[in-house]
Design a protein that fits this description.
single chain; about 170 residues; mainly alpha; Four Helix Bundle (Hemerythrin (Met), subunit A); two-stranded antiparallel ribbon; 5 helices; 2 strands; about 0% strand
């Protein structure tokens, strides 16, 4: 049985993100279920999907005033680097790191979805962003300045400064 199963608790309310996340969970389960002969191909499929998955989210962020270097995008790059390292190790004949990474991804993914992705989904809903067309129903709700954190209240330096000033 896979370590991570799709459930409504993982849904964010943005259909494109939810569909992509469901596919991620399915591909991760495929890796976990694969025998040694098939695990490398299953991992490669997961890595390729994750590249497309993160590229799409990064496009959504840029279209809705997230900075190119925000922590969510940076997090995507770091995770992809680790997945690619696992792929390289697997191609060299060492499948153990792939198996370990699959278990770690099953723990990481719900946390990422519940924090960074949830903040992005709320932002997309607030501005009425349609991932399929790239249009915004509420462009007037876009932030006045580019978002440099992850989009959550506790993430941006300005928000932290504002909280400190309020607390004083």
């Amino acid at each position: 049985m896979p370590t991570l199963l799709w459930s409504d608790e993982l849904a964010l309310g943005v259909a494109a993100m939810d569909a992509t996340h469901q596919e991620f969970v399915t591909l991760l389960a495929d890796v976990e279920a694969a025998d040694d002969a098939g695990v490398l191909a299953a991992w490669q499929a997961l890595v390729e999907h994750t590249q497309q998955h993160f590229d799409a989210e990064d496009r959504y962020m840029l279209a809705t005033r997230f900075a190119a270097g925000n922590c969510h995008t940076t997090h995507h790059r770091m995770v992809l680097d680790v997945l690619r390292q696992g792929l390289a190790m697997g191609q060299a004949g060492d499948l153990a790191p792939i198996r370990q990474m699959a278990q770690e991804l099953a723990v990481w993914f719900p946390q990422h979805a519940d924090s960074m992705d949830a903040a992005l989904a709320m932002h997309l809903q607030r501005v009425g962003f349609d991932p399929a067309t790239g249009t915004m129903a509420h462009a007037d709700a876009l932030p006045a300045e580019v978002i440099h954190g992850c989009g959550g209240v506790t993430c941006t330096p300005q928000d932290a400064t504002d909280r400190e000033a309020t607390a004083a």
